[in-house]
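Workshop exercise sheet. Pairs work together: one partner reads the sequence aloud, the other fills in the structure field after running the prediction. Swap roles for the next sheet.
Pair: D.N. / O.F.
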Amino acid sequence: MIFFYISLSTYICFNIIKFKKAFSKLQKCKYGIKEYGNWIFKNYYETFINKELLAIVLIIISFNFNIKIIGVATVIFYTLMFLIDYKNKNKIKINKQIISRIIITILIFLGVNIWFIVDYISYHYADIIIDNTAFYYIILILMSYFAYIIVFISNLLALPFDKLKHRR
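Structure field:
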């Protein structure tokens, strides 16, 4: 169980840097849905074909090995990814538009992660036959991999709030 919490903490540290990069790209596109969507697919080497494809190996490990092995592999992988990306500083300007998008993204992640943690704790303290931990790792890895798409969705969800603010 300790590997799950440690891997979750390294995963969150790496994702803070990755989502900061995605939000800075969103700001450079001036929060435009079409501009940001075009940027995502024009720069697919940066968004989809990157060093994080190695996380697919973690998904394969989660199907074939013990859960402790996937926990240790996740800790090592996301720690290395954090250390590699930590040097790249992406600045975001804090304004009302970016705050609403950050809040929506955090709510998406909190909803999924709290559900995972509660279910994981209930698994270890109850007599449940099926362990879903490998499924949790798969979802978390995919959420990290598709960070730019999640920011795109957050941008879509925040647009009605921006229009309400401008009416006042």
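Discussion prompt: The mean pLDDT is 82. What would you look at next?
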